[in-house]
Amino acid sequence: MTVKKRFIAGAVCPKCGEMDRIVMFDQDDQSVRECVSCGFTDAMRYEVAVNQPATRLDQTAKAGQSEQATEVVKLVGLDS
Ligand SMILES: [Zn+2]
């Protein structure tokens, strides 16, 4: 298993206060923050909702469509 570590831009280490030193990686079902400067680590448990982002995107797309439809109705109403 490859652990992908990624830097979090602009993140400040709560321990040493250094910026751009925080990496994040997944370990088991946890998301772990680690400061490469002082060695601070902080594990955050994942919410068991892997499919949610896709669902949210789908809902957003649908909401956008209905918003457009509402706009058309409004314009027609103003004209008459
Ligand atoms: Zn640190």
Write the topology of this structure.
Layout: E1 6-7, E2 22-27, E3 30-35, E4 41-45, H1 52-79
The chain binds zinc ion.
Explain what this protein looks like in three dimensions.
With 80 residues, this protein is of the alpha+beta class. It has a domain at 1-45. The protein is 35% helix and 24% strand. The chain has one helix at 52-79; strands at 6-7, 22-27, 30-35, 41-45. A 4-stranded antiparallel beta sheet has the order 1-2-3-4, with no helix packed on it. The chain is globular, with a radius of gyration of 22 Å. The structure holds zinc ion (ZN).
Give a nutshell description of this structure.
The protein is of the alpha+beta class. The chain contains 1 helix and 4 strands, in the order ββββα. The protein is 35% helix and 24% strand.
Average pLDDT metric: 76
Query: Total strand count, please?
Result: 4
Distinct small-molecule ligands in the complex: zinc ion
Q: Helical element count? A: 1
N-to-C CA distance: 64 Å
For the largest sheet, list the strands in their spatial order.
Answer: 1-2-3-4
- Measured by DSSP, the beta-strand proportion falls in 15-25%
| Shape verdict | globular
